[in-house]
Amino acid sequence: MSLGARLAGYQLLVGLGAGVLWWLGSGFDAAFAAVAGGAASGLLTWYTAVKALGRKHQDPGAMLSDFFRAQAWKYGLAAVIFVAAIKIFGHQFLPFISAYLATLSIYWFSLLWKE
């Protein structure tokens, strides 16, 4: 399994865990928003990994260019997702953003993984 797929998969799991916690504390609407936040993070990670690392590069410049392009698209897509989340979830934006932020911890833990 590629590193990008592992990161995205673990982010989805953290998002589901956040959804369970929000469900226990605040009900279904908050849980749904939290799971959506986790899913948004996982999908953005997966998209970036596919676009940045999805093909073999002979030229380091081309690889760096693909990486920067993928990151730029990720930031743009994240902005669109956040605006949509504010409109869709409205009063449940806190569960959305808290789950999204919790999934970012996966990047820190990935530094400890052994390949």
Please tell me about this protein's structure.
The chain is mainly alpha-helical. Helix content is 84%, strand content 0%. The chain has five helices and no strands.
Give a quick rundown of the structure.
The chain has 115 residues and is an all-alpha fold. The chain is built from 5 helices and no strands.
Keywords:
mainly alpha, 115 residues, 5 helices
What structural category do the secondary elements indicate? Answer: mainly alpha
The poorly predicted ranges are none
Strand content: under 5%
How much helix, percentage-wise, in residues? over 70%
Shape: flat
Describe the secondary structure blueprint for this structure:
Elements lengths: L2 H24 L1 H26 L6 H30 L3 H11 L1 H6 L5
